[in-house]
Amino acid sequence: MLIELRSAELTLGERCLFSNLSLTVGAGDRVALVGHNGCGKSTLLSVLAGETPLDAGDVKRRRGLRVTRVEQFVDPALETLSITELLERNLAEQAWRGMAQLDRLGISAELHGTLVGDLSGGQINRLLFALALAEDGDLLLLDEPTNHLDLESLLAFEAALAEYPGAVVVVSHDRAFLDSVGRSTIFLRDGQVSRYELGYSAARHQLALDDDARAHARSVEDKKIDGLRRSAAQLTAWSRAHESEKLARRARSMQRRVARLESQRTEVAGESTLDLDLSLARSAARQILRVTDLDVSYPGHTLFRIDELYIRPGDRIALLGANGVGKSTFISQLVAASMATEGESIRYSPQTRLGYYDQELTEVAGSVSAIDFVTARSNRDSQQIRSALVAAGFAFAMHEQAVNTLSGGERARLLLLSLALRQVNFLILDEPTNHIDIDGKEQLETQLSDGAHALLVTSHDRYFIDAVANRFLWIVDGGLHEISDPEKYYQRLASQGDVAQRLASQGDVAQRHIRSDAPSRLPTRSGTDQTGPASAQPSEEDRALGRIVELEKLLADDEARKPKFQKLHRQELWRQELAQLYALLES
User: Fold this and answer.
1) Over the stretch 309-329, which tens digit does the pLDDT of each residue have?
2) One-character DSSP codes across 288-313
C-alpha cells in the first residue's frame, strides 16, 4: 500500500465533492481515473498529492512516499526559466536524466535554451512529463497529460509510461490512451468511486452492466415503497374516520418501514452535465466542395499539392498526418476560401454553409456574454436561444456570464451550440475533443455520424476518428492519399518511434498558442486508394528552408501589429533561430 483514503469528505464552497469516499493505491498500480468534467478528479489528485486537506476522513501514506504530480497547467513562476534552468533547479545533478527524457519525447537540445513561457501547449506537456519521469518517484499523478499532444508524441508518451517503475494514477478523457496505460479503472461519480481491476474499455462495459442492474433494483424498490406509502396513507385515513388507534399504529409502523426502505435504496449514478445537441442541416447539393490544382503552402514554399478532391454530403473525412505536414495550413486555406467571393482552386457549392471549430477556441473569447455570443451567430429569437442554452447545460444564471470566465468544456459546448443553431451543413473540426469528457465525446460521435452533412476533422483521439469518419485522407511523403483504414497511419507512426519524435519537434513552433505546419517533401499525385511507395525523409536542408519560411512569416506578421501588441521577446528568439538556420545552410 502506497496511499489510502478512508471515509474522505471534502466540500468546496457549497458543493460537496466527496462524501465517505475510500480509495487505495498500491505499488505498481496503473490506475485510470475517469469522470465527468467538474466531478472533482483534479481535486482528488491534489488530495493524493498531499496538497489539499480533507474536511473529514483519514489519509494514510507509506513512510517516505515520494509523490510526483503533473498538472494541466504550468506554474506561472516557472515561465521565466529556460528549459535547462528548470531541469537544473528540479533535478540538480540528475538533470541529464531529464534531458534524455526530453529527447525521447521530441524536445531536442536546440530548444533547451527556450523559456518555458514561450513553449507551445504540447511542448509544455512533454516538458512536465519528462521532469516527472526523471524524478523517478513512487507514485506519479497525471492530470490530462494528453491535451495538446499530437499522435506521434502521444505514442511516445505511452511507451515511456509503460517503462515507469512506480505506480501511476492518470486522469484523461482519451479512451485509447486509457486502454493503453491503465490496468485498473476508477470511476468518480456523485462523490463516490467505483473501482474495477480492468482496463478502461472492459471496465466501462462492466460499469454499464452494473448500472443497469442497479437501475432495475432501484425500480423494484421504488414500486414497493410507493405501494407501502399509499397503504400507509389509506390506513391513516381509516384510523381517523373510525377513530381506531389500532389502525393508526399500523399506519405509523408502515411509515417507519417506508423511511427505512428509502434510506436503504440502491444508489443510481447521476448523468453527465454535458449535453451536446449538434443537429446539423442537410444539403441537397451533389457536392459540398471541390478542390483542384491546389498548392497547400506557406508563402514561397509548397507543403503538398492536391490535384483533385471532392467532398460530398455524407462524407465524414478524417485528415491524418504527422505534426508539421500541413493539416492546419490546408484547413486555414479552406476557411479563408469560404469567405472569398470566388476562387479557382477551392470551390464551394452555393448551398454550402460552413462551420469551423478551432482547437484553441479563439472565437469564444472576451467579455461578451454567453447569450450575446450565440445571438450574434444565429437567427433565432431570444427565447429559442435561452431554451437551447438550458438544454445544453447552461443554467439561466450563466446566460449573462462572460465567455472568458467559462471553463474549456463550457466554451467548447457554447461554440458547438452556435454552429448547430446556424444549421451549417459542412463542419470543419480541428481537435474538437480536447475539452470534452468521455460521455460528451460519445454524444458528439453519435450526432456527427448521423445525417447528410459533410465533415472534415483532425484529431489525435483514435476512438473518435474510428467512430466518426467514413473517409481517411493521409498527408504523407509530400502527397495527399486516400486510404481505406486509418490503421496504416497508426502503424507507421508506431514503427517510426523516437525518430518520428525528433522530426516532429523540428516542426514545432516554440511559442505558446501558435500552431505550426512545417514543410514536407516534393508534392506527389493525390486521389489514390493506397499510400503508394514510400519515399525518403525530407533532407535537413529542406527542413531548414521550411522553418526559415515559417519564422520569417511569424516575424513579419508580428512586426505588422501595433507596437503595443508586438511580442518583442519572441521576435528576438525568432531572429536568433533564423541566424542559426542560415548558418546551417551556409555550412
Assistant:
1) 999 988 999 999 877 788 888
2) SEEEEEEEEEETTEEEEEEEEEEE-T
